[in-house]
Design a protein that fits this description.
By secondary structure, the chain is mainly alpha-helical. The chain has helices at residues 3-9, 21-52, 54-67, 77-80, 84-96, and strands at residues 11-12, 17-18, 106-107, 112-114, 117-119, 124-125.
Length: 130
């Protein structure tokens, strides 16, 4: 069953009605946007940093040229496994510009003071990372 099929079958219990077309379009847009927006944002940061640091860009270009087959117009999927510096550049981009603003929530097992605040037993704490 696809996501769209589940939306077509969904009934709002409070209102006893099916979703309207504009509601389904909005939900589909959110579903697609959540999955792609973070990826495109990270790639934008990676490319911005390559522009900012031309030596890194040059080293990455040299690695690609040395490992990709002569005369190839594009990098093949099997080439990606050998592009170690590309992996490092992407991982550093993810570290510096994480697409998520919080790490997984943490719960405390006893009353604790954190940054001048009393956190109750079984309280949940979210840490900002961006």
């Amino acid at each position: 069953m696809s996501y769209v099929d589940s939306l077509l079958d969904l009934e709002l219990p409070e209102e006893k009605r099916k979703l309207e077309e504009d509601e389904m379009v909005s939900l589909c847009w959110e579903f697609l946007n959540v999955g792609t927006d973070t990826t495109s944002t990270v790639l934008q940061w990676v490319i911005a940093n390559l522009v900012k640091y031309p030596k890194i860009q040059e080293r990455l270009y040299d690695e690609i040229k040395s490992l990709v087959r002569q005369g190839a117009e594009q990098v093949k999927e099997e080439d990606l496994q050998r592009l170690d510096y590309l992996t490092v550049v992407v991982l550093e981009g993810l570290r510096r510009h994480t697409p998520r603003h919080f790490v997984l929530p943490h719960a405390v097992r006893e009353v604790v003071e954190l940054g001048g605040y009393m956190i109750p037993w079984d309280g949940t704490i979210n840490f900002m990372v961006a």
